[in-house]
Amino acid sequence: MKTTDLPRIETQRTILKLMEPQEADLMLTFRMENKDHLMQWEPKRAPEFYTLPFWQAQFRAAIREFRRGASLCLVILSKDEQEVLGVCNYTNIIRGTFEAAHLGYALAQKHQGKGIMFEALESSKGYVFDELKLHRIMANYLPRNQRSCALLKKLGFEIEGEAKKLLKINGVWEDHIITSLINPRSC
Ligand SMILES: CC(C)(COP(=O)(O)OP(=O)(O)OC[C@H]1O[C@@H](n2cnc3c(N)ncnc32)[C@H](O)[C@@H]1OP(=O)(O)O)[C@@H](O)C(=O)NCCC(=O)NCCS
Q: What distance in Å separates the CA atoms of residue 143 and residue 153, rounded to the nearest whole number?
């Protein structure tokens, strides 16, 4: 598979890129190690989620989606690209009068509290605004997710309201705080 057209973003401590199917084992390790840590913040996962074929298919789909302009699903890797530190996914990209995407992210438990996600989102939002030229990034968080709240605030996201029963997290429809960040160069 030719992948030279895919984004690859270097930050001070990480590499952000779309992974290739042959790298699925690194993601599986991340998902297995962080199963309990992420369960409370994410949708309920089917058993296949914790298998290599799932991630191989997922990476193929992510590359296809990027090429047709529907999403940018970045994996946050260590500099040597031997460890997945987390993910930041810009999905549901809609053009036209909207020019917006949803942002979702997750960091390995052992890498929390180091500013890694802040670093990854600072750089990737630059790509989303300057290269993809989107106008708005939208992010939603559970009111009890204080780390996520602090992170979005630091990045400049503004609270726009609260949506009732917005997302099904770990099997339960949950209210979320709605935030967004507008591209300063698109106004
Ligand atoms: C939400 C989540 C990504 C936040 O991770 P995080 O490590 O707290 O976020 P940051 O990268 O902004 O790091 C901030 C922390 O790093 C510290 N830090 C250390 N060095 C830093 C640096 N160079 N730059 C910035 N912050 C730094 C900050 O003081 C802060 O620590 P504190 O919270 O103990 O005060 C993470 O908790 C996570 O993945 N949670 C589970 C999944 C989840 O909630 N997803 C989002 C759903 S909406």
A: 13
Q: What is the CA radius of gyration of the chain?
A: 16
Closest ligand 1 atom to the C-alpha of 116? 11
Check if 113 has its Cβ closer than 6 Å to any atom of ligand 1: yes
Structure tokens, 21: 């199917």
Class of the CATH domain delimited by 8-182? alpha beta
For residue 185, the CA-to-ligand 1 centroid distance in Å is 27
Residue 18, classed as helix, strand or coil, is coil
Among the ranges given (2-11, 103-112, 158-167), the one the predictor scored with the smallest mean pLDDT: 2-11
- 182 has pLDDT over 80: yes
What are the structural domain ranges in the chain?
Answer: 8-182
> To test the ligand 1 pocket, which listed residue (90, 118, 155) has its Cβ within 8 A of the most ligand atoms?
118
**Contact status, residue 119 vs residue 13, Cβ threshold 8 Å:** yes
Question: CB atoms < 10 A from the CB of 91, how many?
Answer: 14
Nearest CA to ligand 1 atom 1: 148
The finding on whether 7 has its CB within 6 A of some atom of ligand 1 is no
Question: Beta-carbon neighbour count of residue 138 at 10 Å?
Answer: 16
Stated as kind and residue range, the H or E segment containing 76 is strand 72-78
User: DSSP letter at 49?
Assistant: G
Integer Cα distance of 163 and 85 in angstroms: 30
Mean pLDDT of 71-89: 98
